[in-house]
Design a protein that fits this description.
By secondary structure, this protein is of the alpha/beta class. 56% of the residues lie in helices and 12% in strands. Strand 4, helix 7 and strand 5 form a beta-alpha-beta unit.
Length: 145
């Protein structure tokens, strides 16, 4: 089985907060973990924001970034291709999403087509989760598991 991880869910793997336990379980569960190439920068940015606002120490930030770097290699990264770009355009004509959210949804839709299976969409962003549900995804907010 495969699952798609939005950055709002993935960052919970590296910072202790509601949903971290579910992400730990997921990473040990044997599922194929699918992520968009943009997730790398989004997770690093989230970790950096937490360091700068004082919710994450410098040491914890550095450990989290190192863990992300190590584990990213084991995830299945979906490149942002011209096919994804077209899907983003189509999505944005239907719903007012933020650009990066549209890339995540387009990437998950691309993966579903390639794998020919429904993917759980892990996400902790309410607006993105609503858009994913509207497209038929089974949305899982790790903070609510």
């Amino acid at each position: 089985m495969a699952v798609y991880l939005d950055s709002s869910a993935l960052v919970k793997r590296y910072v202790k907060e509601p949903g971290s336990r579910e992400m730990k379980r997921l990473f040990g569960g044997g599922e194929a973990l699918l992520v968009s190439a943009i997730g790398w920068a989004e997770c690093l940015a989230a970790l950096s924001r937490k360091r700068h606002d004082g919710t994450l120490s410098v040491r914890s930030h550095d450990r989290a970034c190192e863990a992300l770097s190590d584990e990213w290699k084991s995830m299945n990264e979906i490149a942002v291709t011209s096919e994804i770009h077209q899907s983003v355009r189509d999505l944005l004509s239907q719903t007012p999403l933020r650009g990066m959210d549209a890339i995540h949804l387009a990437s998950a839709l691309w993966a579903e087509r390639r794998l020919e299976e429904s993917l759980p969409f892990y996400c902790s962003d309410r607006k993105l989760a609503a858009a994913a549900r509207a497209l038929g995804f089974a949305v899982v907010d790790p903070a609510e598991v």
